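task queued by scheduler; priority normal; single chain, no ligands, no partner chains; default sampling; output format set to structure tokens
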Amino acid sequence: MSQVPQGLLGRIAAGAVSFTVLTYLIAIGLALGLVTYGQFAVQLENIRVHFFTGVFFIYPIITPITVDLLLLTDTCIIIYVDCSDFDNRVKLV
């Protein structure tokens, strides 16, 4: 029975990580693209809601500020990407 060289296992692992990161970036890009452009974006832009805050939205505090859902959705996606990206960088260092 022959053993697999460690260099090969490292290359397979690096390839798997690269594939995972690539599909993550494609999914986030598609999400931003589909939400930001097209008919769905126009519909989200026309819906205005009162911005509310609270502790995990259990006790909502409604503010007098109105925002459109397109801005709110894009902001949430960008914050998610930003937080997950910094989280991965900290773990790798």
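post-processing summary
- Strands lie at 48-53, 61-68.
- The chain has a mean pLDDT of 78.
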